[in-house]
Amino acid sequence: MNNSKDTKIENSNEDAIGDNMDISDDAIKQLKQDFKQSAIDLVVKKFHKKARNVDSLMKDKKFQFSYNDFGVDINIPATKPMANSCTNEIECQNKDSNSGEPLATKRLKLSHNSIAINCISTESDDSSDDKNSNHKKVVLFSNGTVECNPTLTELTAIIRPLLDEFIADLVTLKTGIHLMIPQIEDGNNFGVEVQQDVLELLTTVEEEMIGRMNSFHVYYSIRADLVVKLAEHPDSDDYRRAIGQRDQLFHKQLCYILASIRNYYLQIHDLIVKNLKRIQKPKSGTNEGLLY
User: Fold this and answer.
1) Best label site of 90, 190, 203, 266, fewest CB within 10 Å?
2) What is this structure's pTM?
3) Each residue's pLDDT tens digit in the chain (292 positions)?
4) What is the dihedral of CA 113, 117, 119, 124, to 10 degrees?
5) Residue ranges matching CATH 1.20.120.180 in the chain
6) Which residue from 51, 7, 244 is spatially nearest to 162, judged by alpha carbons?
7) Sign, Cα dihedral of 64, 154, 72, 258
């Protein structure tokens, strides 16, 4: 009796699992079909429109490679030594010793727009007791915030969403084409080779675009370091020029990213439309036609 009951329970569990698998299979089939259709719709209905939109955007003079009218006044003026300021380290130390202050304290009076500022770097005996502590130098901007380059900030706000959207489109398109690859069989694999060639191109473009995303972070990090260096050495014309050159380089990178998005939208649309039948039905039964 117990054996028969156990058998009935096992059969009912198997039936329940089978029903769930049927529901799951139907849902998965629909999901795959949705991805396939989304991939085709992207190419047929969207890619050529995006290429035209980006091309129109590139006609703006700010997106021209030759555009260079985006200089910015860095809010770190050069110093003007005051009459009673010391001019070298030895003189500063002598003044400190005469005033009874520790020799390790160095004072250099600077004038920013007629405002006297004391830049003090102190090495006290107390700090030497804690050799494991990390002391970070704090740089203060006497004239207030040093703004980002407004033109480049404006262009970044336009290009970054376009880049994000393009990468998302590539991911959807790759997934759809992957799902169109048929079961592996011997013979009549020309259509599959077409699919593989398209996927290889999409993967290459995706990796390049993801790499381009890092250029935003790199630009702001390097520029921030240069601004801090200029604040520490406000009389250095090299640091001022370096900031300007970094802005120019980043502008060229933004223009290149925008041009790449337009060109890849066009190239991918052209390649897939020309080979759409092969991509959708790689096992058509004939080997007529070539990859364009």
Assistant:
1) 90
2) 0.71
3) 555 555 555 555 555 445 554 557 888 889 899 999 999 999 999 999 999 999 999 999 999 998 988 777 788 888 765 555 555 545 555 555 555 544 444 434 443 433 333 333 334 444 444 445 455 566 666 677 788 899 999 999 999 999 999 999 999 999 999 999 887 766 667 778 889 999 999 999 999 999 999 999 999 999 999 998 988 888 888 999 999 999 999 999 999 999 999 999 999 999 999 999 889 888 765 544 445 4
4) 180
5) 34-75+146-280
6) 51
7) negative
